[in-house]
Design goal:
By secondary structure, the protein is an alpha/beta fold. The chain is built from 8 helices and 10 strands. It is globular and about 45 Å long.
């Protein structure tokens, strides 16, 4: 079956009622970047722009059935995974995606909410490291996530440990680091580290990681090489953040409908 004019990107992520992160962030990003978003909700949440207050994972077998139906219907060009909510779901996804090695896979390993609520158990982290990361084209942890996943302190050491899982690349974002600017670093096996620097914005943002990972997925779905997809996605994300707004009493939300930075 030939690919349609709009590449189809499958997002597997949680539902955020505030509309700032999760599935809605993915839909907005993928649509802005010329892709068709197919979606599968992994978990429901009680949250606002401050924090996540409760997480309710959906049943893994239900998620698996929905994915099988989508794969039978659509020529998926890329897959993006965000919040999962349970080790059972991660195991199910690994079993399914081992049968789809030709589809690029972007994983945003969400371990905690912006307000600090933990969103991943030790068992889920173990499953990510041992089963899902080996299948990934690129994973996109922020610095605290990279340290928790790898058990190391320096970001170079974290990246080395994460590459040992078998993933194709690691993009570690530096928003949480204490520096005047934000430096994001892309690590790949047997390749020099590449970095991009961005002016640090004045506010904190809800859904920035979802935006970045989805934008990378959009680039890969459109046939870009990984380094180009990552570079363009960072530009799109920074532009979305810089145009962001504050609809509630918590974090700012990215404006993902700004002029398309990837064209």
């Amino acid at each position: 079956m030939p690919h349609p004019a709009k590449p189809i990107v499958l997002s597997i992520a949680g539902h955020d009622p505030s509309g700032g992160a999760g599935i809605q962030a993915d839909i907005e990003t993928l649509t802005a970047l010329g892709c068709h978003p197919a979606t599968c909700i992994s978990s429901l949440t009680l949250q606002d722009s401050h924090n996540v207050y409760q997480l309710r994972p959906l049943q893994a077998d239900w998620i698996g059935q929905q994915l099988e139906i989508l794969f039978q219907d659509y020529p998926v060009a890329c897959i993006k995974i965000g919040l999962l909510g349970s080790a059972e779901t991660a195991t199910m996804l690994a079993d399914l995606l081992r049968r789809k090695p030709h589809i690029p896979l972007v994983i945003d390993p969400i371990l905690a909410a912006g307000g600090g609520t933990a969103l991943a158990t030790d068992l889920l982290i173990e499953t990510l490291l041992g089963q899902l990361f080996p299948l990934a084209t690129v994973i996109t942890p922020n610095a605290p996530e990279a340290r928790r996943l790898a058990g190391k302190q320096t970001l170079d050491a974290c990246a080395e440990r994460l590459l040992e899982t078998g993933c194709g690349a690691v993009l570690i974002t530096g928003t949480h680091e204490e520096s005047s600017g934000v430096v994001n670093r892309l690590y790949r096996p047997n390749a020099p580290v590449t970095s991009q620097s961005w002016p640090r914005l004045a506010h904190s943002y809800h859904g920035s990681g979802c935006t970045l990972a989805s934008a990378i997925a959009a680039g890969l779905a459109r046939g870009m090489p990984l380094e180009e997809a990552v570079s363009r996605a960072q530009t799109y994300t920074w532009d979305s953040l810089s145009a962001g707004w504050r609809p509630g009493k918590g974090q700012h939300l990215p404006d993902r409908s700004h002029r398309n930075s990837v064209e």
